[in-house]
Amino acid sequence: MDDLFKRLNIKPKDINLYKVAFSHSSYANEHKAKKDYERLEFLGDAVLDLVVADYLYKNHNETEGEMTKVRASYVCENALYEYSLNLGLNNYIKMGHGEENSGGKYKKAIVADIFEALIGAIYLDLGYSTAKRVVLNVIVPYITNPNISFFSDYKSALQEAVQTTKKSLYYELIEESGPPHDKTFKMQVRVDGIIYGEGVGSSKKEAEQQAAKDALEKLAL
User: Fold this and answer.
1) Is-above-0.85 flag for pTM?
2) Is beta strand 169-177 parallel, antiparallel or unpaired with respect to 194-201?
3) Active-site position among 36, 99, 113, 116
4) Contact (Cβ atoms closer than 8 angstroms) between residue 70 and residue 56
């Protein structure tokens, strides 16, 4: 991992943290290890959210809802997967034989998780300022490049935003009108039981997208 540390410009104090950060649960189970990366992933997720939120607040003049959408798009699974692959983190993942044989080192969810786990390890080992520097060095070039966007849809962005605070989210059909060949659907999206957005569309999926868009524009996380 020395080449990775050099690329990130960090000098680890506790190498064991990084070993855990790259240990998938299948590897831990197979080798009777006590730890895998999941706890570090949880911590890294929170650090990422704070760093990106802080950066957007200080460098952008968008509304709260707009910043929520931007933050969600740069800490979503697609984005984390890209950061991780660009750093070659999948080459360091330790996993069980079955998981590795099934292509685990290229599974989006796992590869994305590893990036968060690494940030969690850096935070514990070297402190917030170093973790912040690493995160900004990796992510800011993507944010400032107008030709790169990980935003896929409003529902995904809203889901990512809600996951960061562990709130529940669900969509509910509240109205259906029109003839069979030309129906109109009205959906509500609720967060912790509270209505955060409404949307109308010619299909349930379209109405859900509009409801998610409405929620993102006024969501206070």
Assistant:
1) no
2) unpaired
3) 116
4) yes
Which of 45, 49, 113, 214 is the catalytic position? 45
Phi then psi for residue 137, to 5 deg, are: -60, -35
Strand partners, 172: 188
Catalytic status, residue 45: yes
Place of tokens 């570090």: 40
25, 26, 47: which is closest to 36 by C-alpha?
A: 25
pLDDT in tens, 2-21: 999 999 999 999 999 999 99
Give the largest CA-CA distance in the chain.
67
Say what angle helices 77-87 and 128-143 make with each other, to 10 degrees: 100
User: Are 118 and 131 within 8 A, CB to CB?
Assistant: no
pLDDT in tens, 158-198: 887 777 666 788 899 999 998 776 788 999 999 888 899 99
Is 113 annotated in the active site? no
